[in-house]
Design brief:
By secondary structure, this protein is mainly alpha-helical. The protein has 6 helices and 2 strands, in the order ββαααααα.
Length: 169
């Protein structure tokens, strides 16, 4: 709760309620004794600061966003980031594949399905169901997986050295 005072003649140097446009706190001023109170201001400072931060982050995002990606998401009108969702499904499918087969195939067999997701041709709830089902499969495969807990560091280093030798010779 803040007491409000008004300097009609602008001689007392009051700072106002908000000092700067991008301020996220209430501005306070020294008040002379016997100054006439005009009212009270109730302010949720934490809520206001959080709002200001989120507002600033939003406009930062607007300024820096990928316009082509944004336009794609606006065109399909599904209210989700379709490229992000496509990558989410792809990564979950990859995790499931690694745990179930012990192998990683770089080339996906369901490219068209993934491009369909990226184009926004799937409903959000259907994609969430797909992700949930993949997570269940991943958890089940994890329980029975024969993959080692940690990779063989020495073998990985030797493979890296071999690749670099072939690349730079």
């Amino acid at each position: 709760m803040f007491a409000l005072f008004y300097d009609q003649d602008k001689t007392l140097g009051y700072k106002g309620i908000i000092q700067k446009e991008n301020s996220n706190e209430v501005s306070l001023s020294s008040i002379p004794k016997n100054e006439k109170l005009i009212g009270y201001l109730s302010c949720n400072q934490d809520g206001y600061s959080k709002y200001c931060k989120e507002y600033k982050e939003y406009w930062n995002w607007i300024e820096k966003r990928n316009e082509n990606r944004y336009d794609t998401n606006q065109k399909h009108g599904k209210n989700y980031d379709s490229k992000n969702m496509m990558h989410t499904i792809r990564l979950l499918q990859t995790a499931e594949q690694i745990l179930s087969t012990g192998k990683l195939n770089i080339r996906v067999s369901n490219r068209e399905e993934l491009l369909d997701i990226k184009a926004g041709n799937k409903e959000y709830d259907d994609l969430l169901d797909m992700a949930d089902n993949l997570i269940v499969l991943i958890e089940n495969h994890y329980e029975t997986s024969t993959l080692p807990e940690k990779p063989n560091e020495e073998k990985a280093i030797q493979n890296l050295i071999k690749i670099r030798e072939e690349l730079y010779q």
